[in-house]
Amino acid sequence: MNDILLEIKDLHASAGDKEILRGVNLEIGRGEIHAVMGPNGAGKSTLSSVLTGKPEYTVTQGSIEFMGQDLLAMKPEERAWAGIFMSFQYPIEIPGVSITNFMKTAINSKRKAQGIEPMKAADFLRLMKEKMALVQMKPEFAKREVNVGFSGGEKKRNEIFQMAMLDPTLAILDETDSGLDVDALKIVADGVKALHSPEKSAIIITHYQKLLEYVRPDVVHVLKAGRIVATGGYEIVDKIENEGFEQF
Amino acid sequence: MKALNSSNMGGRSMNIQMRESEGAIHGKKGTVDHGNYVEVPVVCGPGVKEIASGEHIHEVFVVGPDGTQASLPSGIVVGEAATADIIFIVLPGVKQDIPLTVDLVGEGSTVHLAGIYLCSGNDHVTFDITMNHRVGHCVSRQVFNGLAANASKAEFFGRIVVAPDAQKTEAYQENHNVVLSDNAHVNTKPRLEIYADDVKCSHGATVGRLDEDAQFYMESRGIPEDEAKVLQMISFVAPVLEYAPEADREALATRVEDAIRHLSSV
Ligand SMILES: Nc1ncnc2c1ncn2[C@@H]1O[C@H](COP(=O)(O)OP(=O)(O)OP(=O)(O)O)[C@@H](O)[C@H]1O
Ligand SMILES: [Mg+2]
Asked: For residue B224, which residues of chain A lie inside 8 Å, CB to CB?
C-alpha cells in the first residue's frame, strides 16, 4: 500500500577526490516525513545537493529513483519540474533579480516544459500574495532582489515561501530552522505543516528538536561519516538530545 | 603627479568578480604633486560636439552590426552649468573603436557616460575614453558594463585627468565585465591622473564570470540553464539602463534583452 517516492541505493558521492557519501540507503514512502540528523560534516547537505543535482558533486556509485525515474540522469531544473525542492542551508543572493521575477520565471519555466501556457499575471500575483501571507512575509519583499540584504531569518522564510509557490512533492529542508527566532520557527513549522499532504513527502535536516516537535517526523535517521547509521522513530531524537552522536 | 592604477583585491561585494581593481582619492591637502601636468589643446574638429553653457543633452547611441543611426561623437566640449548624459549600447556583431574625449571647460557641469556592450563571435569593441576636468566644480560619472562571449574581445580604456586648477572635482568611473567563454577576452584599464588636491575621484573595474551558486540556485527552482544565464546577464547590465532617458528605457531594455538571448544561444 505504501508507494515509494524516493529510493536511494548504496549512494557514494565525492567532491573532487574527497568521498563524502559512502553508501547511503534511504527509502521514503509517499506521505512520509523523514528527519535526518547527524554531526557537522556528516554529509547531510551533500546528500541534499546530490538529490538536487549540484554539479560540484560526482556520484561514483549507487542509484536514486524518484517516482520511478532515474533522478541522476536529470538536470537540476528537470528535478524541480518533477517535484523536488530543497530549502538551502545557505540561501544564495541573486542581485538584480526580484523575487517576483524569479518566481514568475520558475513557475512559467515548469509550465512551458509541461506544455502549459504561462500563468496569467493576475493569478500569479494572487498566488504570490497568498503564499507570502502564509509565511508572514511583508508584501514589499515581492519587489526585493532575491535574498540580497535579507537577514538570516528572512532568507529562511523566503525559502519556505518559494516552496509554497512551487508546491513540491518532495521537500528537502536543510537546516531551515537554524537561525530562526522562536516566532519565526513557529511560522516556518506551520508553513511546512500546511504544505504537507498525504501525497507529499519531506526530508527535514536539523540539529534541533524544536522543529521536529512541531512537524512530527514518521522516521528519523542518523547520518554519520557519509552513512546512515541508525533509523527509527521519534525516540531517536530524544536519544540524540540526551547522549549525542557518539553512541551511533 | 599621482597616477592611480592600482589593483588591490577585495572590497566590492560583487560576487561575479574574478579580479578587480579599485581606487579612490579624496581631497587632502598636500597629497598630490602638481608637477607633470601637460595641458593639451581642447578637442576640436568635425566629430566634436559642443554643449553650450546652460545646455542639457541626453542622447542614446545604439551601435549595431549595420552601424549607428547617428554618427558617434569623437569629442564633447562642455560649457558652464551644462549637463551631458550619453549612453552607448553596443549590440553583438560589432567591430569598432569608440574613442571619446570629454573636455569640461566651464564650471558647474555634470557629465554622465554610460555604456553596455554585448560582444559575441569575433567582435572587437574598444572604448577609449578621456575625461578632462580642466576647470573645477564639475562632476563626471562613467558606468560601463559589458559581456564578452565566444571569441570576442572587449576593451575599456578610461582615463580621468583632473587639471591642477580643477578643484572640487568629482570624477567616478566603473567598468564591470563578465566573460562568458574561455576564448573571450576583456581588457580594462582605468587610469586616474589627478593634479588638483581638493577632489573626489574613484574607479572600480572587475572582470568575472557568471555566478555558479546563483546559477544552481535558479536551476534548482526549475529555471533552465540558459534562462538562468540570461537572467544573470540582464541583471548585470540593467543598472546601466538607469542612465537612459526615461522615455527610451523600456525599448532599450527590450533590445538589450533580445540581444542577450541571442548571445546565450550562440
Ligand atoms: N565541494 C566540496 N569540496 C570539498 N569538501 C566538501 C565539499 N562539500 C562538502 N565537503 C566536505 O564534506 C563534508 C560534509 O559536508 P556537508 O556540508 O554535507 O556536511 P553537513 O552534514 O551538512 O554538516 P553541517 O551540519 O555542518 O551542515 C564536510 O567535511 C565538508 O567539508
Ligand atoms: Mg549542512
From this structure: 75, 77, 109, 113
| Within a domain: A152 | yes
Q: Using 50, 70 and 90 to split pLDDT, how confident is the model at B66?
A: confident
Q: What is the pLDDT of residues A89-117, one digit of tens each?
A: 999 999 999 999 999 999 999 999 999 99
The number of CA neighbours under 13 Å toward the Cβ of A96 is 20
Q: Provide the 8-state DSSP code for A120.
A: P
- Beginning with the edge strand found earlier in the chain, give each strand of the sheet holding B2-4 in spatial order: B2-4, B185-194, B153-162, B124-133, B95-104, B75-78, B48-51
Count of structural domains, chain A: 1
What CATH number is given to the structural domain containing A148?
A: 3.40.50.300
Distances (CA, A) of B93 to A22, B120, B124, B263: 50, 7, 9, 10
Could you give the CA distance from residue A211 to residue A234 in angstroms, rounded to a whole number? 12
- The tens digit of pLDDT for each residue in B83-96 reads 999 999 999 999 99
- How remote is the CA of residue A125 from the centroid of ligand 2, in Å? 33
Residue A153 lies in a domain: yes
Cell of A76: 537540476
Q: What angle do CA A239, A242, A243 make, to 5 degrees?
A: 80
Domain count, chain B: 1
Query: Are B221 and A93 in contact (CB < 8 Å)?
Result: no
Helix, strand, coil abundance in chain B, percent, nearest 5: 15, 45, 35
- Give ipTM to 2 decimals: 0.97
Residues in CB range of A127: below 8 A, 6 or more apart: A119, A165
Domain, as residue range, for B48: 2-265
Q: Is B180 helix (H, G, I), strand (E, B) or coil?
A: coil
Domain extent, residue A207, equals: 4-243
The shortest CB-CB distance from A77 to any of B211, B223, B239 is to: B223
Sign of torsion, CA B252 B253 B254 B257?
positive
- Select from A74, A109, A161 the residue whose CB has the most chain B CBs within 10 Å, as the one to mutate to test that interface: A109
Mean pLDDT for chain A overall: 96
User: Considering only CB atoms, which chain A residues are within 8 Å of B214?
Assistant: 92-94
Domain membership flag for residue A248? no
Beta pairing partners, B152: none
**8 Å CB contact between A101 and A125:** no
Q: Which residue in this structure is represented by grid cell 549600447?
A: B89
Yes or no, beta carbons of A75 and B223 under 8 Å apart: no
